[in-house]
Design brief:
This protein has 218 residues and is an alpha/beta fold. 28% of the residues lie in helices and 25% in strands. It is built from 7 helices and 9 strands; from the N terminus they run αβαβαβαβαβαββαββ. Strands 3-2-1-4-5-7-6-9-8 form a 9-stranded mixed sheet, with helices on both faces. Helix 5 runs parallel beside helix 6. The longest helix has 12 residues. The N and C termini lie close together (11 Å). 39% of the residues are buried.
Length: 218
């Protein structure tokens, strides 16, 4: 994948493709899609690897650009915390194994954890995600509740946290990356962790060490 240009802000798309070994024809759920191309974690998956999925975004002004640049996916312009995910999944014939989940909303207004809690209540008994990137914004939030509660939810569901407190270019730890052990090659995951464990650095947030996405060796 040396000729690939990654669009994710912290190259989340690179993580997904590495863990899933360049999978084609995958399916994603992107909660907090924002721009259809720029700093978007699923654009490369859809445009080059023939993925499709569901894009959830509150800002309705993106609708036309989604239609133009993301034609293979379903576009839900709505409040992510008010969606009936069970009905949404059933209506769109979502596979029971979803290859990638992104949650990137607003921590300070509680929508990030509210969306995850809704997924937990409504669909996570029956649906699994192979790879997850979850933005907790611990660097900018007034409480660590989102980070702590999200880890509790993913932990009870059997997800394995591969990287904790990812940062962007050495500052601002803000995201956790997970896999589900039933759905990925865990020998590769263990190797990935082992070769990067020494790259964590202390931060100005007590008891938190962080890893720069640019330092991750795949």
């Amino acid at each position: 994948m040396t000729d690939v240009v990654y669009n994710g802000q912290a190259e989340q798309d690179k993580f997904v493709l590495s863990v899933l070994k360049g999978k084609r024809d995958g399916f994603f759920l992107e909660i907090g899609s924002n721009e259809p191309i720029f700093i978007n974690n699923t654009y490369l998956l859809e445009s080059r690897y023939n993925w499709k999925g569901i894009m959830v975004e509150y800002e309705k002004s993106f609708f036309q650009s989604y239609k133009t640049h993301r034609p293979n996916s379903v576009h839900i312009l709505s409040d992510a915390t008010a969606i009936d995910y069970k009905a949404l999944f059933e209506t769109n014939n979502v596979p029971m194994t979803i290859d990638y989940l992104q949650i990137d909303l607003e921590v300070n207004d509680g929508t990030t954890i509210a969306a995850l809690e809704k997924l937990d209540r409504e669909v996570m008994d029956n649906y699994k995600f192979s790879v997850v990137t979850f933005e907790h914004d611990i660097y900018n939030s007034h409480t660590d509740y989102t980070r702590t509660k999200s880890r509790e939810i993913f932990g009870k569901r059997g997800y394995f946290r591969v990287f904790s407190d990812i940062n962007n270019r050495g500052t601002h730890p803000y995201e956790d990356w997970y896999v589900h052990p039933d759905l990925v090659d865990m020998s590769y995951i263990q190797q990935l962790q082992s070769q990067n464990v020494h790259k964590y650095r202390i931060t100005n947030i007590p008891n938190i060490q962080s890893i720069n996405y640019q330092d991750i060796e795949y």
